[in-house]
Specification:
Elements: H1 5-13, H2 25-62, E1 66-70, H3 79-87, E2 92-106, E3 111-119, H4 130-133, E4 134-137, H5 141-144, H6 158-163, E5 166-170, H7 171-177, E6 184-195, E7 198-212, H8 217-220, E8 223-227, H9 228-235, E9 243-248, H10 254-265, E10 269-273, H11 274-277, H12 279-317, H13 319-327, H14 332-368, H15 387-413, H16 417-421
Parallel strand pairs: 3-8, 5-7
Antiparallel strand pairs: 1-9, 1-10, 2-3, 2-6, 2-9, 4-7, 5-8, 6-7
Helix pairs in contact: 1-14, 2-12, 2-14, 2-15, 12-15, 14-15
Amino acid sequence: MTLPYEIVIGLRYLRAKRRTRTISLNTFISIAGITLGVAALIGTLGIMTGFKEDLQAKILGTTSHVVVQERGQATMKDYDALVTRIETVPDVIAATPFIFKQVLLTTKSGVQGVVLRGIDPEKEPTVTEIANNLTHGTLGALEAGLVGAKTTIGDESTANHASKPGIILGKELALRLGVFLGDRVNVVSPVGTISAMGMTPKIRPFRVAGLFESGMFEYDSSLAYISLQEAQKFFGLGDTASGIEVKVQDVFVADQIASNIQVALGFTYGARDWMQMNKNLFSALKLEKTMMFLLLVLITLVASFNIVGTLTMIVNEKQREIAILKAMGATPNAVMRIFMLNGLVIGGIGTGIGIPLGYTFLWLIQNYWTFDASVYYISQIPVHIQAVDVLLVACSALAISFAATLYPSWQAAKLDPVSALRYE
C-alpha cells in the first residue's frame, strides 16, 4: 500500500539531516515536552481524584446518604411508620431513626464538647459503616454497657460498673478525655431541668463500650454514640427522634432519591443528600482539581512552543524543496497538511508515551511513598485514574499540538516558488 506523499515527506522532515532513521534533536525535545506535560497532568488528576474519593468514602462511612427531618420541628414522631414508607421508595436500601444533640463529656482528666448521636444498634449497620469502623467493642454493647480489662474503677463495684449504659467514642476523643475501654464518662446536657436553684444541667454517667476510627479527624475527635433508647431517656424526648438516616443504591443519584422521598412523605418533611450536606467541601475540591488542570496545561503549552520552533526551522531549511513541490503541482493545502502532520505526530507520540509514564508515576507513588500511620490519617497516597480524565488530557495535548502547527504550516503554504528558486 502506497502512502500519500504528504505523509512520506512529513515523516522524512522529522528525521535528522543525515541520512539516518533517527529523529532530529529538535523533534526529540518537542516530543519530550509533550510527554512530561501529559505525565504531569495524569499524575496530578489521579492523585486529586484519589484524595476526593478517599474523603468521600470516609464521610459516607460515618454519615448516611440521605437525612430526613421534619420541617420546623426539632423532633419527629411516628418515626417507625415513616421508616416503613421511606423503605418503599425505589433505590432505598435501608432507613433507621437517630437522635442528634450537642453535649459535654467530662472525665477526671478532661472536658470536651461533642456531638452525641443516639442510634439503633441493630439497624445502624445497615445504613452506615460505623460497625466496620469500630476498633474496640461492639454496637450491641451500647445497651448493656461493657466492662473491659478493668473490673473496678475507684471504689465502684463491678456490678455498678456493668449496669451503666454504654457509649462509643472516637479514637481522638478518647485520647483527649484520657479514657479507655470500660472507663466512666459523664454526659452533661446543656438543657437541664428547672429546680428551686434555677436551671440545673442534666448529668448521667456512661461506660466506654467501644472506640471507632473513621479516618476523619473531625469525626474521631467530636463524635460519640449511645443507643436510641438511652438518648430518648436522657434528653426526655419520649418516643421521638431527630430524624431518619437513609442508605440508597447509588450515592451519585442520592439527590434524586432524596427528592423522591420528599414527594412520598409530603411537604412536611425535608430530605437532604450527602452532597448537599457537604456542598462546600466537595465544591472546593472540584474547583481545586479544575484549577490544577488548567495550571498544568501550561506545561503542554510551553512544550507546544518547541513544536512551533521546530516546524519554523524546517520551513526555513526546506524552502527549496517546498518550492519544487509547489512547482510540480502540490497545492497550498497539501503543503499545509505536510507540516500539520508533523505536529500531530509529535503530539501523538508524546501523548502515547506520557500516558503510561503517568500511570507508572502513580504506581510508584502509591506503592513506595508511605507515611507514618501514627502521625497521618493515611499510610499511602490514594490514587484513582478516571478514563474521562485520561481522555481529556489526551485530547488537550493533541489539540495544543495541532494548534502549534497552524502558523508554520501557513508560512509554508504561502511560499512563492519563484522567489525561493530565483537564485538556485
